[in-house]
Amino acid sequence: MLKEERQNFILHEVNVHNKVLTTYLVEKLGVSEDTIRRDLNELAEAGRIIKVHGGALSRSFHNSFNSTDIYSLAEKKAIARKAVHLIQDGMFVFTTGGTTILEMARMLPENLRATFFTGSLPAAFEYVEHPHIDVILIGDRLSKNSRITVGGAAIAQIRQVKADLCFLGTNAIDIHAGLTDNDLDVVQIKKAMVESSSRVVSLSISEKVNTSQRLKVCDATDIDTLITELDPDDMLLKPYRAAGMEVL
Amino acid sequence: MLKEERQNFILHEVNVHNKVLTTYLVEKLGVSEDTIRRDLNELAEAGRIIKVHGGALSRSFHNSFNSTDIYSLAEKKAIARKAVHLIQDGMFVFTTGGTTILEMARMLPENLRATFFTGSLPAAFEYVEHPHIDVILIGDRLSKNSRITVGGAAIAQIRQVKADLCFLGTNAIDIHAGLTDNDLDVVQIKKAMVESSSRVVSLSISEKVNTSQRLKVCDATDIDTLITELDPDDMLLKPYRAAGMEVL
DNA sequence: CTGGTTCAGGCAAAATCCTGCAACACATAT
DNA sequence: ATATGTGTTGCAGGATTTTGCCTGAACCAG
Fold first, then answer.
1. Would the pLDDT of A66 be above 70?
2. How far apart are the C-alpha atoms of A117 and A180, rounded to whole Å?
3. Which of A236, B16, B102, B152 has a CA between 20 and 30 Å from the CA of residue B236?
4. What Cα–Cα distance (Å) separates residue B20 from each residue in B16, B166, B215?
5. Given this model, what pLDDT does residue A78 score?
6. Does the ipTM surpass 0.90?
7. Cβ separation of A64 and B8 shorter than 8 Å?
8. pTM given for the model
9. Which pLDDT score, from 0 to 100, does residue A12 have?
10. Among all residues of chain B, which has the CA nearest to that of A21?
11. What is the mean pLDDT of residues A175-179?
């Protein structure tokens, strides 16, 4: 087997499984540990994989490992700062869960008077502290993963409202795949919110732009406004602007 | 499993649940306590989590940790300890808000499997951490004073359920005036819960026994069980026992 | 206060890694 | 054909990392 073949196999393996063990490759490819190690070093050198003790990780996996919550706090605050300007007195607003939404909740102007509908427990906790925000909690089964209420009753409650704004804390957005997520219950809640809102706003840190997950919430064209921490003129966002989306 | 995978899992766990126990990770990941401890130390060193005795917390949670009403905490814990024994596997349970209820939530046995219905935001926060407790959040307008949901929709949701138990965090109880409160919205929620439960349990610290407020929730005879921090034989509780109430 | 739990640091075994070196294959120049 | 250079591979060894166990200290609830 050629070296290039071998390295292609390794890359494929890493991309599919997000990780690979040295020992596994030794057995699978029938070469010595040293050879595998050299391959991994070369691939890591070229930036194709992340080498760790005992094997290697895919770049995306490592990124998700490094970019959780606190890490990209500054970006999320920047997004939140842009988002709060969209809310005006008297508005009805849907919000999902997620840490970006939480940052937004903490930044709401003291004198804003609006009504927020949410099934997110942490978000509700923030809103309820605000002197003039009315909070309507959407009730149903509380999902332990996402800490938002999910289920048919929640969706029915959402459908009863026609909101001015809907803020979606977004896991993945892509011009072709649209807005996607990986939790079916959450997807259904988001879908209902999108359908019940005049204006849909997606809050997405840039590293989630042009990525997609398994389950579809809505088409890119259903999103009215896209907010990232980047400058609106950034090249990355050009296709979204071209598709008629407002980019902030 | 690679070390990075493990630490990634830990981070994810902490970010989702705001906290994680060492023992939980040991079992879940199948490695020794020492390894988990080392992982937690490394993550704490890197500023990704906050290490505490027994596990770790998310940074955001640790920062926003507001020590709530610790007045009469010892008494409330004593009450909570008695109360949890009433809950059995498979039960449907209503709970109101209040710090005594919160203490009870923190004391639920790890292996208890039950379904809790509540409109209390802080209580839901505690329940959702529990591995086997299903939480049904009662939705409606969130009252800023009491941090529970109130209103007609909430009452309608309560009426749809017939629970085995109802725990009332009680402001005032009197053998003649019955169970009373001073917030009309809260009173209506409590009323609905009392009517929809087979067994009504009042959690009252002794200083609230034999006091009354303006608005009536229910008669003393509607209360099946009264729990205080006192010995059940205490003279103060005698009239309640005489009225047929179970006193714990 | 007391008993049980959790923690920190030292230690040893095992796994993993790196470096240098020799063997081999292949291409190219002489 | 032979010599030379380049690239690849496996191996030996010593260094490094990781992990589990141990002991005594620190911590916490009742």
1. no
2. 22
3. B102
4. 10, 30, 42
5. 87
6. no
7. yes
8. 0.72
9. 85
10. B2
11. 91
In single-letter form, the type of residue at position A89 comes to D
What pLDDT does B65 receive?
Answer: 43
Strands (E), chain B: 19-21, 49-52, 55-58, 92-95, 114-118, 133-137, 140-142, 149-150, 163-169, 172-174, 178-181, 197-203, 215-218, 225-227, 246-247
Query: How is residue B160 written in tokens?
Result: 């749809």
What gap in Å lies between CA A73 and CA A52, rounded to an integer?
26
CA of A65 vs chain B CAs: smallest distance (Å):
5
Straight-line distance from CA A30 to C1' D22, in Å? 40
Contact B11 A99 (CB under 8 A): no
Among chain B residues, the shortest Cα distance to A64 is held by B8
Reply yes or no on whether the pLDDT at B239 is more than 60: yes
In order of start, what are the domains of chain B with their CATH numbers? 3-63 (1.10.10.10), 73-247 (3.40.50.10470)
pLDDT tens-place string over residues B193-203: 999 999 999 99
Please report the beta strands in chain A, taking only residues with DSSP state E, as ranges in sequence order.
19-21, 50-52, 55-57, 92-95, 114-118, 133-137, 140-142, 149-150, 163-169, 172-174, 178-181, 197-203, 215-218, 225-227, 246-247
Task: Please report residues contacting nucleic strand D, using a CB cutoff of 7 A.
Answer: A 1-3, 6, 31-32, 34-35, 38, 53-54; B 3, 6, 31-32, 34-35, 38, 53, 77, 81
Task: List chain C nucleotides near protein: any atom < 7 Å from a Cβ.
Answer: 5-10, 15-20
